[in-house]
Structure formats: C-alpha cells, structure tokens
Amino acid sequence: MTVARGPGLGLNPADLRLGAVILAVALLAWAPLGWRLGGGPPDTDPERKFFVVTTPEGRVVLPADRDACHVVTGPLGKTVVQVVDGRARIAASPCPDPACHAGWVDRPGERRVCLPNRVVVEMVTRSGGKAAPGGGSDTEAYDAETH
Amino acid sequence: MTGRAHSARRPPASAVCVLAALVAVAAIAAAGRLEVVDLLSLRASDRPEPGVRSADFLMGTYVVISAEGPEADRAVEEAMAVLRDIHEHLDPSGPRSHLAALAAAPGRDVPVSAHLIAVLEIADDVNRVSGGAFDPSLGPVVRLWGFDADPGPSGGPNGGSGAGPDDASAARPRTAPPTAEEVREALGLTGWHDVTWDAARRTARLARPGMSLALGGVAKGYAVDRAAEVLAGAGVDRAVIDAGGDLYLLGTKPSGEPWRIAVRHPRAEGFLGVLELPDGTAVATSGDYERCFVHEGRRYHHILDPSTGWPVPGVVSVTVLAPTAAEADALATALFVLGPERGLELAESLERVEALMVDEAGTIHLTTGMRDVFSPEPSGDDGDSSGRGGDDGG
C-alpha cells in the first residue's frame, strides 16, 4: 500500500543551508534599514518633538529630527512645509502675503499659519507639551505668542 | 518516474528564496510601521489629559483654545460655539452678517446682535480716549487699500475687516497704493459720528450710502473675552485663548509661575522678548509686518491713519496689556496711530493698561508697568534672511 505524502517541505540539507543564509542576510539587512525607517530605537521619549501640519484635508505629523520637504494642499493650491535641523517653516504658499507666515517654528507651542490656504504648522512634543495650558516641562518655553 | 515524484514533493530552491524574501520584506515593513504607530499615538496625545485643545479658522484668523480642569472638554466646546456665533454676526459678509446688513441699508435702523452693540460700545470708548485714533468707520478706506481681501493673523485695526478667504465680495490685494484722490474719496465715506446705535432697541445705523464698518481691530478681542467668560464660568482651572496673537490668560499655571508670552520680533526672525503675566491678563499686538505690500521699495501696511487714510508711519509694532482682549486689541491700534510719545502717554493714563512700542529705528518704548514684566530676548536680533524684516518681503 502506498502512503500518499503531502507536498511537505522535504528539504534536503543544501536547501536548508541556502534558506538559512538568505534569512540571515535579510535579518542583517533589517537592522540598519529598520533603524532608519523606525527613527532609531523604540521611541518613548515624551519630549521628542514633532511638527503637526494641519490642512483642510487632515493632518500630517513630521518628526522634527528628520529633515523633510512636505507638500500639502489647501483651497488655493500647494503649500510647502520644510523641516530642517529640528525647525520647520512654510517655505512656499500660494498666498498674496508670505510675510504673514515668515520665520521658523522651533519651540513647542509655536506655530505659523497661512490663513488663505488654511495651513497650520505647529510644534508639539509627544507628551502633549504646550498643548495643555501652562504645561510642558520646558521652563524656557513660551505659553503663547503675540504678534 | 520516481525521480519525478521526488521532485514534486520538494519545493524548488527558488521558492525558499521567495519565502525568505517575504520574511525580509515583512520585517522591513514592521520596522517602518514602528513610526506609523508612533504617529498614531501622537495624534491621540494632541489632546493630552487633562488638557483640552480646540482650534478653528474664525474671525479671519486661527483661533486656539487650550484649557485644563473639570469639565474643560464641555467648556471649550461651548467657548468655540460662542466664537463661531460671533464670527457669523461680525463677519463682513455671509447670510448672518450684521455688518453686511448695515452697509446695505444706509440711513435706516437695522436690527443687530447684542455682540455688535457691545463691540460698538467698546470701539466708542477707545475712539473717545484716543481722540479718534481708533476708528472702525474706516471700512471704505480699508477696502480701497485691499486689506480686507486677505486675512492676516492679526486681523486689521483701522484696517482688516476680518474677512475670510471665502469672502467673495472682498477686494483684491493690492500691489500698488491707491491714488491720493481715491484715498480722499474713500475717506469721505467715513466718520465715527455717522455710526449710531440704540442699545435698548438693539439697532444700528450707518448714516450715508457707501459707509461700512471695519471691526477687525476690536472684534477678535471681543470674541476672545466672551470665550474667556464661558471658560471661567465653567470653572476651568486655567486656559489660554489665542486668536491670532490676541490672547487672554485665565487662571494660573500648575507651577505657579507667571504665564510666559513671547512677543514676535517685527523685523527679524525670533522674538523681541518675553512677557511674564498674571491671571486675567489680555494681550494684543498690532504690527506693520502682516498684511502689507511693498511698492517701489516702500512698505504699505494695513494700519491706517483715520485722519489721512494712509498707512501710519513711524511705528512698526505695538503690544498692549489690558484687563480685556477687546481693549488690548483696540488700544494696540490706537497707540500705533498715535505714535510712541502720545501713545505711551495714553497708555500711562489708563488703569491696568501697559504698552510696548517699537519704532521705525528699532527702539523699544515701554510704559512704566511694562518694564516690570517685559524681558528682551537676548537672541531676538539673530535674524536670518527668512525673517519678516526687509521691505523686499510682503
């Protein structure tokens, strides 16, 4: 009587060795790539800073420690938000008065707004920081800005 | 035959490669996902407990309320509802705009909201104490200059009407100044004495056709005060109401330290300095760096002199502290128009009002009380080329 055998792996030692080598290479590749994509070790730093870009279409969160150039769309067109060296600015916007939103955002609670294109760039910390009034642990930070 | 059967049972080496590659891709995707999870958790922390934060585009600016305490959630929601109501009534256009209704019915008593009556009363007080330096009847001149076309974060004083970008009737932003004749003509359609109202009957009237109100220099502050009332009435522990830089500070910080308010530098990147302020203080700033244009090397900004119809020269920024945001808002404009000497004199004469003025030369002028709460930012002048200083801006 013949016993039917399923497809099974039925690998010979050479196959297993080959598979092990490929897996090892894949895992080795994961380490630096995963580190880069994940922004380093598991992130639990409550003071890590982010930029929240709010538009009529929703919100985008950009880590402050990663340079980026992000394009968002508002009612007038495209606004370019630039993150460089831990600070962010509205680098370009289709509005008549770019001076309104000139300057960099580099402290938690600080923001720049392009009103005509409805784009807001704010710095926040993971812990919420200045989102709570008078909160945050940075005693040198400001509670609000008048302009 | 046997060889064929054996071959069918064993997956080829290429299948192992594919499997391994899939594992690798999954690992990489998982690594990438770490960040996604982080970002999602950050979104949740945008409303940190126990603080509550809400923001919206209202009154021609970006309004943010942050509050903390029992029922803060509900209180902030109510405060935002009040702001939206005021926005609809005091917007220059829109179906519920009382400003539009007034302008459309010159010479007639028009039913208006209690909000508009209250704003007119405050405006009248500031108009009186400033000798007419604050004048919301400048609507036609503001429109001529195009400063009602594009809302800046600080709204307009004797300027910006606070129109939103959806205000289809707003004028186009200018790139060159109007002629002297055009300004004279528009100025002929102004006059605070031609704006009258009856608080008891809740009506208002513009005397002549072509007149209109520009409440950008007081309405935002008024709205901030009403929001602060709601929050205080709801018993929140502390709150900051921020309408494009017009602020009201309610309660005390958990640390017991004073509120730290940065004053934006009018000509450079960064801040001019910091104000350390107690509970119940309102702050407002008027600057020539927002809502302006440059023509042939000269800056034309939105703060207009009611006596000439032209942008006020000599001053670049005024910050005022007052018991209410409406007063701070309107006085910031009035002091800007009056200039450092007369402006500081007026501020010194008013109870619980302090002022900081920056003139064209960059000199900072402070009232006596302001000296106690203002600390210049050491790095305030470390401007870079992206600052808002140069006349090549706008």
Quick structural gist:
Chain A has 147 residues and is α+β, with helices and mostly antiparallel strands. Chain A has 1 helix and 8 strands; from the N terminus they run H-E-E-E-E-E-E-E-E.
Features:
heterodimer; A: 147 residues; alpha+beta; four-stranded antiparallel β-sheet; three-stranded antiparallel β-sheet; 1 helix; B: 394 residues; eight-stranded antiparallel β-sheet; 10 helices; 16 strands; 22% strand; globular; disordered N terminus; disordered C terminus
Order of helices and strands of chain A: HEEEEEEEE
Percent strand of chain A = 25-35%
Low-confidence stretches of chain B: 1-8, 29-49, 150-157, 159-170, 380-394
Alpha-beta classification of chain B: alpha+beta
Average of per-residue pLDDT values of chain A: 79
Specify the overall morphology of chain A. elongated
Give Rg of chain B in angstroms.
27 Å
Walk me through this protein's architecture:
- The complex is a heterodimer of chains A (147) and B (394).
- Chain A is elongated and about 75 Å long.
- The model of chain A has no long low-confidence stretch (mean pLDDT 79).
- Chain A has one helix at residues 13-38; strands at residues 49-55, 58-63, 68-74, 77-84, 87-92, 111-114, 119-125, 144-146.
- Chain A is of the alpha+beta class and 147 residues long.
- Helices cover 18% and strands 33% of the residues of chain A.
- Chain A contains one helix and eight strands.
- In chain A, the strands form two sheets. Chain A has a four-stranded antiparallel sheet with strand order 2-1-7-6, with no helix packed on it. In chain A, strands 3-4-5 form a three-stranded antiparallel sheet, with no helix packed on it.
- The N and C termini of chain A lie far apart (91 Å).
- Chain B has helices at residues 2-9, 13-45, 72-90, 98-104, 114-129, 139-145, 180-187, 219-233, 325-349, 368-373, and strands spanning 51-58, 61-68, 110-111, 195-198, 203-206, 238-243, 246-251, 259-264, 271-277, 281-287, 292-295, 298-301, 315-322, 354-359, 364-366, 374-376.
- Chain B has 394 residues and is an alpha+beta fold.
- In chain B, α3 (72-90) runs antiparallel to α8 and α8 (219-233) packs across α9 (325-349).
- The N and C termini of chain B lie far apart (84 Å).
- Chain B has ten helices and 16 strands.
- The radius of gyration of chain B is 27 Å and the shape is globular.
- Helices cover 37% and strands 22% of the residues of chain B.
- In chain B, strands 1-2-6-7-10-13-14-15 form an eight-stranded antiparallel sheet. Chain B has a three-stranded antiparallel sheet with strand order 3-5-4, with helices on one face.
- β8 (144-146) of chain A pairs parallel with β8 of chain B.
